[in-house]
Structures are given as structure tokens and as C-alpha cells.
Design a protein that fits this description.
This protein is α/β, with parallel strands linked by helices and 252 residues long. The protein contains 11 helices and 8 strands. It has a single domain, classed as Alpha-Beta Barrel (TIM Barrel), CATH 3.20.20. The model has no long low-confidence stretch (mean pLDDT 96).
């Protein structure tokens, strides 16, 4: 099956509204009409509405970086799915390693978030990946199995392909280290095999991104791997020309 590549830039805690709008004005002439690669930007809550409005009519989609699984409630500081849906965002990144490491994101919470997003018509990007200690301890497959199966546990087989999975080895995020092509391919193929245990058709259709120090210089090699269907890009996504170059690599 031919899977449309998906490149998403994760801004993390960067960009004011003014800076976000400046980015959009720079990226739209470069990739705003691309139709053979799905392009997204993962934006801080404060700039979501501005970026949604600025990208209307283009092919650039807007994602939030987190969401709470409850529709509403006494969860001070949290943002709900209906709040995001009202802004016309396309989807949400959930389970990023920084959310897991610094803010206590759990597999149990993700088990609720992923199907709740799908029910609302929003696209989840479910992040999974091992730490350096886990890789050195030969626990990579155990970690990926736990995070993937738990995150997808309450998703119907028919909806599995609506989820994007981002494989992000924690040791490669923001460190300048990059998984070798073989490491990236092996991990993404393993994740696809986990999905195949549920549904062979979904495994053929689901997109699996690689994330971890992706930049224009290494994008083509990583995106050319058989089981890598795109990239979740961190630091290199803060510059429009850099992100656009990665999108172009995904078109090759």
C-alpha cells in the first residue's frame, strides 16, 4: 500500500503569536500547496488560533502538543478536546517523551486520549520510544510493545490506521544523536508488526514517523526507509526553510 508521507514540525515551547505568524508567512510559499506529503506544525496553545487562521486554505495542518482526556472538569491548567476542536485544529501530539519524562504522562492516560481524539474526529500522533538506558539494556522492543499496545488498546481495529505513530528514541531527541538507518527501520518495522497483530490491513495503512534530531542533511536517508512514513521534527522545524527542505526530502 502507498502511504502518504507525513512530516510534522513540533515547536515545543517556542514561538509567540507574532513569531508563529512570521513562521507561517515563511513556510506557506514553500510548501503551502504540497499535496503529496502531509505537512503539519505542532503549536503551543497560545498560538493555535492564530496559526489555524493563517494557514486556512493551505495544505499545512495545525496540531496541538497535548490534551486532557476528559471532556471537562476540575483539571486546572489543562485543555480539553472540545476546546481544541473548536479551534479547528487537525490533531494532537500525545505521549511525547518530554511529556512522559517531565510531566508524568502515563500509558494509562494515553489509552484514554487516543480513542477520545478519534471519536472527536481529530488525528492523534502517538509518540513512543526508549531511553538510552533502555536501549543499552536491550529493552527497546519491550518498551515499544508496552507503549504501542497500551496506547492503541481501546482503539477499534477499523480505526487503527487513523492514528499516526511517531517513533522517537529518547536518546536522540535534542541531543544531536540520530538513530542509524538500521535502528530506525528495525524499530518502525517492529511497531508495524505490533499493529499487524491486531489487523494486517491497518498495519499496511498506518503511518509511522521517525523523530530524533531529524534535519535536512539526514532526512532523505531516514525518510527513504521502507517502514518510515515521515518525520516528527523538533529543532529543525523552527525555521521555515529547514522544515520545507525536510518536506521536499519526503517527496523524493
Amino acid at each position: 500500500m502507498s502511504r502518504t508521507p507525513f512530516v510534522a514540525g513540533n515547536w515545543k515551547m517556542h514561538k509567540t503569536i507574532a513569531e508563529a505568524e512570521e513562521f507561517v508567512s515563511g513556510i506557506l510559499p514553500l510548501v503551502g500547496d504540497v499535496d503529496d506529503v502531509q505537512v503539519g506544525v505542532c503549536v503551543p496553545f497560545t498560538a493555535l488560533q492564530a496559526v489555524v487562521d493563517s494557514t486556512r486554505g493551505s495544505s499545512v495542518q495545525v496540531y496541538a502538543q497535548n490534551v486532557h482526556q476528559a471532556t471537562n472538569g476540575a483539571f486546572t491548567g489543562e485543555i480539553s478536546i472540545p476546546m481544541l476542536d473548536e479551534l479547528d485544529v487537525h490533531g494532537v501530539v500525545v505521549g511525547h517523551s518530554e511529556r512522559r519524562q517531565y510531566f508524568g504522562e502515563t500509558d494509562a492516560a494515553l489509552r484514554e486520549k487516543v480513542p477520545a481524539l478519534l471519536a472527536a474526529g481529530l488525528e492523534p500522533i502517538l509518540c513512543v520510544g526508549e531511553t538510552e538506558a533502555e536501549r543499552e539494556g536491550e529493552q527497546t522492543e519491550d518498551v515499544l510493545r508496552r507503549q504501542t499496545t497500551e496506547g492503541l488498546a481501546d482503539v477499534a481495529d477499523a480505526d487503527l490506521a487513523r492514528v499516526t505513530i511517531a517513533y522517537e528514541p529518547v536518546w536522540a531527541i535534542g541531543t544531536g544523536k540520530v538513530a542509524t538507518p538500521q535502528q530506525a527501520q528495525d524499530a518502525c518495522a517492529f511497531i508495524r508488526a505490533l499493529v499487524a497483530d491486531r489487523s494486517a490491513a491497518a498495519a499496511d495503512a498506518i503511518r509511522i514517523q521517525y523523530g530524533g534530531s531529524v534535519k535536512p542533511e539526514n532526512a532523505a536517508e531516514l525518510l527513504g526507509l521502507p517502514d518510515v512514513d515521515g518525520a516528527l521534527v523538533g529543532g529543525a522545524a523552527l525555521d521555515p526553510k529547514s522544515l520545507a527542505a525536510i518536506v521536499q526530502a519526503a517527496r523524493a
